[in-house]
Write a structure and sequence with these properties.
The complex is a heterodimer.
Chain A (H helix, E strand, L loop, with lengths): L1 H13 L1 H6 L3 H4 L41 E5 L34 E3 L9 H13 L29 E6 L2 E5 L4 E5 L16 E7 L2 E7 L19 E8 L5 E9 L8 E10 L13 E2 L9 E2 L5 H4 L20
Antiparallel strand pairs in A: 1-3, 1-10, 2-10, 3-4, 4-5, 6-7, 7-8, 8-9, 9-10, 11-12
Chain B lengths: L1 H19 L28 E5 L32 H12 L1 H4 L12 H4 L4 E5 L3 E6 L5 E5 L17 E7 L2 E7 L19 E10 L2 E9 L8 E9 L33
Antiparallel strand pairs in B: 1-2, 1-9, 2-3, 3-4, 5-6, 6-7, 7-8, 8-9
The chains are: A alpha+beta, B alpha+beta.
């Protein structure tokens, strides 16, 4: 069964130039129980509350962390458009924006106030070049990396599908549909700077209700979404996961510093909410199924998150995992 | 000097092995206080940590002399021979002949169960009361072993890469039942394989605090004439400050095109 899927993808990958001329027909194809209505059910809130950093008075794990384990997903939109989360993706024919700009969710760029990433001119040109070519990716560099099963990286992982937080003594695991991150709750040294990674190297600690994470060793390859927004391998990121007192939401507030790409540090804010047994599984935010545990209260679990299980046609019509050829010699 | 140390070490190891494991018998758990195994709040063994096999299992599960692409090994299969059905044995021979191109590992595909456990790369076990999460460095695959009393789903048709995993304790042994896998994975580099009918029962047990005895019994009516068992030891990685380093090797084919680059052939940005 899986072999058929891989072969089909390989064929699509070969046919990319042709496929790419067509509207993203596959992107429109609903998977069971998802993408109903305007915005596919992905874009729900047009505004969201600020959450202040402060003490944590809720449940704690055995090792004293705020207990925040569970399922989560962002509340405003996906990775189609970083600065206009309910606007169009580049090329613009996937779906209409949700009303005029003033009624759509704000830019994820919360600083500077104009909502734009403060690119240096050369970096802005690269981003614009990607956006211009996204809907007809005639070169490999214009294919959305997520469409090739690449990990979604920082910060895109928090605005793609729903994800799960698991906590352990001394660490926090973020488990995404495309990749995972283990946050080391220590003051350990980052990896040597020669090592650059899709998800970087993450060391963090709790300050009251806020998980503060330093992300170094970034390779900058994952991009931030379909507009081609990006950081380079010189970037460092400080993430603050600020949890609401009732644990039902957190805001992801991340400051990006990269003197080779940006004229000054800037900050992104992504609102996220928890999903529980009271929520209906929806195949995107909360792609779970009921646990088979007769006699026990309803609870949900997620299947394995292997890209081949999850992927669909997207990324400007260019799809496909690397199904052919030897990639390693080890 | 070096040689003497090595000999001494070898002698010590031999003595230790003799003490722990009589010839042809599985190592028995050691109960000395100095070697007390870690336990969770409920008193069950706590397998949390980073583990890796020292065995040659991934090269070829069966006994083999050294060859260009495999160090020699007496094998890790109980009874030495994998009991293939006749047609399946022919398929396995074909796999062996084409192994330098056809092994799914060479594309960094998910290694499956049990191969991911004895592939020679570290993996980390993160243990909670309700489950074990296995995060593998190779390909960043993640397997969850549920041990919360839940059962396999009533409908098994997903053919997951790592199967559906439901476990329970039998004393200090974690017994995990794995089913609903796909037929995309191999069992080693020598072309040993299985179908989507594969059913695996894993048994995880401490030998001492830094060593796990891992046994997997494989049953697949399409490929094997009877169930058979592999056994390897998993060693805790105790190197200073050791931790996993992300290894999304399946991205190598296209990684050089990002961010906003034409790739190495054209000089890049």
């Amino acid at each position: 069964m899986k072999k058929n899927i891989l072969i089909a993808w390989a064929a699509l990958a070969v046919a990319t130039p042709v496929i790419a001329q067509a509207p993203q027909a596959q992107d429109q194809a609903p998977r069971q129980g998802q993408r109903q209505g305007q915005g596919g059910g992905l874009s729900r809130e047009r505004s969201f509350p600020a959450i202040a950093s402060g003490p944590w008075n809720g449940q704690r794990t055995a090792d004293g962390q705020p207990d925040v384990a569970g399922f989560y997903s962002n509340t405003i939109g996906n990775h189609s458009n970083f600065t206009d989360p309910q606007g169009r993706q580049p090329g613009g024919n996937e779906r209409a924006p949700l009303g005029p700009r003033s009624e759509r969710a704000p830019s994820r760029v919360s600083d500077p106030a104009d909502g734009q990433i403060p690119y240096l001119p050369a970096a802005r040109a690269l981003q614009e070049d990607f956006a211009k070519n996204f809907s007809n990716p005639v070169k490999a560099r214009y294919v959305e990396p997520l469409a090739r099963c690449a990990p979604a990286g920082v910060p895109k992982s928090f605005m793609w599908h729903g994800f799960e937080i698991r906590q352990y003594p001394g660490s926090v695991l973020f488990w995404f549909d495309s990749g995972w991150r283990l946050i080391h709750l220590d003051n350990g040294k980052p990896l040597p700077e020669q090592i650059k990674l899709w998800n970087g190297d993450s060391h963090g600690h709790w300050e009251g209700n806020t998980l503060v994470v330093n992300v170094t060793n970034n390779n900058g390859k994952a991009l931030f979404g379909r507009q081609g927004d990006f950081m380079s391998e010189n970037a460092t990121v400080v993430e603050r996961f600020i949890f609401q007192p009732d644990g039902q939401r957190f805001n992801y507030v991340a400051t990006f510093t990269d003197p080779t790409v940006y004229s000054r540090p800037w900050t992104a804010t992504i609102p996220v909410r928890r999903f529980t047994a009271q929520d209906k599984p929806d195949g995107w935010h909360f792609d779970v199924h009921a646990v088979n545990a007769p006699g026990q209260p309803l609870r949900y679990e997620h299947d394995e998150r292997i890209c081949a299980e999850n992927n669909g046609g997207f990324g400007g019509g260019a799809v496909g995992v690397p199904g052919e050829g030897v990639l390693i010699a080890r | 000097m070096t040689q003497r140390l090595t000999l001494t070490g070898a002698l010590a190891l031999a003595l230790l092995a003799g003490a722990v494991a009589p010839a042809n018998a599985a190592p028995k758990p050691v109960a000395s206080a100095a070697n007390a195994i870690p336990r969770d709040a409920a008193g069950h063994p706590d397998f949390s940590g980073i583990w890796q096999t020292l065995s040659e299992a991934d090269y070829d599960l069966e006994p083999h002399a050294g060859r260009r692409d495999a160090p020699p090994s007496a094998g890790v299969v109980e009874g030495d021979v994998i009991p293939y059905l006749p047609a399946a044995l022919e398929h396995r021979k074909k796999n062996f002949a084409g192994r330098t191109n056809d092994d799914p590992r060479l594309r960094c595909f998910v290694l499956g169960v049990p191969r991911g456990v004895y592939y020679p790369a570290p993996f980390q076990i993160l243990q909670r009361a309700e489950d074990l999460t296995l995060v593998h460095q190779f390909g960043n695959q993640v397997r969850v072993i549920h041990k919360d009393g839940s059962l396999h789903p009533e409908e098994l048709h997903k053919e997951q890469w790592l199967g559906d995993n439901r476990a329970h304790w039998e004393g200090d042994t974690l017994v995990n039942d794995v089913t609903d896998v796909n037929d995309e994975t191999w069992l080693d580099r020598a072309g040993n394989y299985h179908s989507e009918k594969l059913h695996v029962v894993e048994r995880w047990q401490f030998v001492d605090k830094d060593t796990i005895q891992y046994r997997a019994t494989l049953d697949d009516a399409k490929v094997f004439s009877r169930p058979w068992t592999v056994e390897v030891l998993l060693n805790r990685r105790r190197d200073a400050n050791f931790r996993l380093i992300e290894d999304y090797c399946y991205t190598f084919e296209y990684a050089d095109h990002y961010p906003h680059r034409d790739g190495p052939q054209k000089g890049g940005q």
